[in-house]
Amino acid sequence: MNEHWSISGQQINLRHGGYSAVIASVGASLRSLTSHGRNLVVPFDADQLRPLYRGATLAPWPNRVVDGRYSFAGTEYQLPINEVARGHALHGLVVWQDWNVDSQSESTATLSTSVVPQDGYPFHVALVLDLVLDAEGLHTTLTASNLGEQPAPYGCAPHPYLTAGAGTIDDWQLLLPAANVLEITPDRLIPTHTTSVEAHPQFDFRRSRKIGDVEIDHAFTDLLRTDDGVAQVRLEASDGGGTVMSWDASCPWVQIHTADRPEKQNHRIGLAVEPMTCPPDAFNSQLDLIVLPAGESHSAQWSIRSL
């Protein structure tokens, strides 16, 4: 086991064939993933404070809980506000936890942590992250188990920023086989309603096309899937290189963000692709919210590979 610890936590190095991955234990974050030396995700340094949730594991909810307030089983709860500018509770409770490294081989690893009962989320949920690097890329399975005596609201997602290779995000081709997009308010990104991408052609990537200068920070659903329930996003550079992210039927939503940022070093440097078990603010809308019974578990799986 690799015992090196830095600002981003313990560094878990995985290798298989031409693939290499590094997972940082703080936030169970995918710090880097390469194929024959080419970045598939935007990396960050081991001794760097992880920027912008890059590569983090999001649970027990992905995206936002509006105002940090929600009601569950007849009780009102208030979560800590960590998206201060917009006034929301963002990306769950484990993104800054230092996950345990339970096991590691050359190409596999298992990490774990727990969400302990606390103000705003008085539920006890154990999380186990299994990683496998093989000839088809990096495969991740997140399993949540309710250790408490009452049902728990739950959702999850990963938060990688994909890269295609040569050129910039404006030059890359995106294939996003989603029929509907979740509309949001322009200031606080509060979900309003779902509409067809046909009503918003700038978000219609059902046929691969250049991203161009379009700005996206939206959740998409009604995804085209294979017979076994797998959906995928493809990002391709002009030289034919690219990256594919796929996920199973446990994630009916995907958040896409073109990383439009005020900081030059972070502005549009990759495409955030976040397969989600539920949409933003599901703790309030209840839409696709997982209610995890006491003693029960839920698993979600996603993969990233070179095109």
Automatic annotation (TrEMBL):
Superkingdom: Bacteria
GO biological process: galactose catabolic process via UDP-galactose, Leloir pathway; glucose metabolic process
CDD domains in alphabetical order: Aldose_epim_Ec_YihR (cd09022)
Molecular function GO terms recorded: aldose 1-epimerase activity; carbohydrate binding
InterPro entries assigned: Aldose_1/G6P_1-epimerase (IPR008183), Gal_mutarotase_sf_dom (IPR011013), GH-type_carb-bd (IPR014718), YihR-like (IPR037480)
PANTHER family in the record: ALDOSE-1-EPIMERASE (PTHR10091), GALACTOSE MUTAROTASE (PTHR10091:SF0)
Descriptive protein name: Galactose mutarotase
Native species: Arthrobacter alpinus
